[in-house]
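[audit] Reproducing an earlier prediction to check determinism. Same input, same settings, fresh worker. If the tokens differ from the archived copy the diff job will pick it up downstream; this log only records the rerun itself.
[audit] input (359 residues):
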Amino acid sequence: MSSPFLGPIPAPVTGEPPALDSPEFAALIEWETGEDERHVVRTEDGWNITLYRYRAQGNPREVPILCGHGLAGSRLIYDVHPKYSMARALAADGFDVWLMDMRGRNESWPDGGADETLQWCFDDFVFQDIPAAAKKVQEVTGADGIGWLGTEMSGIALYAMAISNTVPGLRGGITMGSPAITSPDGEVPGVTTPYPERGETRYEFSMVRHIGPALAAERSEVIDGSFRNQNTDWLVVARYFAHGVPDEATAIIDQFKDWMDSQSMRSRDGSVVWSDRLGEITIPIMVAAGGNDRQRPPAGARATYEALGSKEKEWFLAGVETGFPIDVGHDDFLTGLCSPSMIFPRLAEWLDAHVSPRA
């Protein structure tokens, strides 16, 4: 039985781009997230993690929602344009939303700021950054619990957090494009693709800021593996490439390569194999995926969903077979033309039912 058709792809709100070398183009792609508050929390190993709060509007809900980004990503994926902002949409629906930049990007560094010699890996996010952030959010809000919204890498982190019990009060969460094991055909930048090349201490993903905005304006097929052109407003993509993509430490890219080679999800020292323990997870989880996610193919996310031990779990595929007008891609799951009307409400409804109902 086919799903009801959700409607055609909505039209973009931005008109045609001005000349790429014009002051108008440069002004359009300038962007800063629209949070109400900024907070900083220090991890046990001395990193200062920056948090960005979007206060709940109207009748608030029980617990705040902490949101994490993907590999070579940042908080901007949740708020790169007012029309296509998951953070603003959830806040408008009564959720207390907190975005975080994990270590190694924007302002999240130890005292002294950015340092090219520093390394970090997935384990640091799971055992240091996210626990510190979750504790800070609960202290500021006075809440006795917290929900998690994670895209790609930070969705994968939810599985590890739940298994290793690193976040007290974790009520549940949503993962988006987050298979515990990514199939070998996944086109993961820097991991399975030749771009960017490995440097001494960094993979220089941020180089995309030089050419990415132009590729977005020209709707180049080169970027279709990240943002599907049919499902994006060019300005959203241009802004994200200009401001949202940081370099990543060689240690974390090497760790993801190890996962791909071994077809497992494990700690850096190999002592914990989280992918073998998905059945231990019992918190409510929605596992969501785009039907045309070329970086993290949806079959892997579906396999993860099947392996979870949670009694309250839901599978959500954003694609033609579930009534969407298009098979949604990797980054346009959160930033696409279909997102405000077809994805944001679905995620909010699930969070309301399973994680953070109205107080």
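[audit] rerun output stored. Observation attached for the diff report: DSSP finds ten helices and eleven strands in the chain.
[audit] end
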